[in-house]
Design a protein that fits this description.
By secondary structure, the chain is of the alpha/beta class. The chain has helices at 15-27, 45-58, 77-97, 114-134, 155-165, 173-179, 186-192, 221-230, 246-259, and strands spanning 5-9, 32-36, 61-65, 101-104, 140-143, 170-172, 198-203, 205-209, 212-217, 236-241. Helix content is 45%, strand content 18%.
């Protein structure tokens, strides 16, 4: 089943570097990459098309991380509209890239209750799903589990969005670990998302405190082994590493997967 599991970094680099970087990832055995549009989309359509075709040729699955400046639950309607546009723009460029997912941090609670935040966020994602379908955009929407306790995006909230809006999800186990004060909750979390045909995961070491995540750090072998041991049988899995040493960490994860095939149940 190891051929169903892909590792890769959370960054591709500039348009000029993209081909060389994809070649390097391929040589290292990495078959996934998440393009970081976290501070804005930096690729033109023709560049995206060329990169998408090249990645497909190499068998490298691309995804996108949308800009950080997104809040689908803002009291300011203009901010909600700008947030929607950022996601729509990612869906459009992602179609040229042949990207499978657009990952995004969906919302903040602000002055709203958790339930009202959920309802407000669900409403906007349903609107985005409609636009996605009307415009024939191909990437799937993938709201991400978040790492801070006071931010919308618990595993339960994201799983509920998957059920109610038919979106996909990004399960960030580093964030879950930080949000749960040192508990990955592998089995119970994966069970929440069992209906998904593929698990799109984020994973890395992480520093945290009582409020949740502080910063990502290098991923240890023990952390990798815990994740690999939690992999379910016969499920496609993509693991994007967000550590400061994301390429070497991804290679380490792949190496440990190949060394520990026998522990995958």
């Amino acid at each position: 089943m190891t051929d169903k599991i892909k590792f890769g970094p959370a960054g591709l680099g500039s348009a000029k570097e993209a081909t060389n970087n994809l070649n390097e990832f391929y040589k290292l055995g990495l078959r996934a990459c998440e393009i970081a549009f976290t501070y804005g989309i930096y690729l033109k359509k023709d560049e995206a098309k060329e990169i998408g075709e090249y990645a497909k040729k190499l068998g490298i699955q691309l995804s996108i991380h949308a800009p950080y400046f997104i809040n689908l639950n803002s009291e300011d309607k203009e901010k909600v509209e700008k947030s929607k546009k950022r996601i729509i723009d990612c869906l459009e460029i992602g179609t040229y890239l042949n990207a499978k997912y657009v990952v995004f941090h969906a919302a903040f609670y602000g002055k709203f209750s958790k339930e009202q935040t959920y309802e407000n966020t669900k409403k906007i994602i349903l609107e985005l799903q409609k636009i996605r379908k009307e415009r024939n955009y191909t990437p799937k929407l993938a709201p991400e589990t978040t790492g801070k306790i006071n931010v919308f995006g618990s595993a339960e909230e994201i799983a509920r969005l998957v059920r109610d809006t038919r979106c996909h999800a990004c399960i960030d186990f580093a964030h879950i670990f930080a949000r749960s004060n040192g508990d990955y909750k592998f089995q119970e979390t994966l069970k929440l998302f069992d209906e998904l045909d593929e698990f799109h995961l984020h994973f890395s070491g992480i520093e945290y405190n009582k409020n949740g995540e502080k910063s990502h750090k290098k991923t240890s072998k023990e952390e990798w082994k815990k994740l690999i041991n939690a992999f379910p049988k016969n499920k496609k899995i993509v693991i994007i590493n967000e550590s400061p040493d994301m390429i070497n960490d991804s290679v380490e994860g792949l190496k440990l997967l190949n060394e520990n095939r026998n522990i995958i149940h």
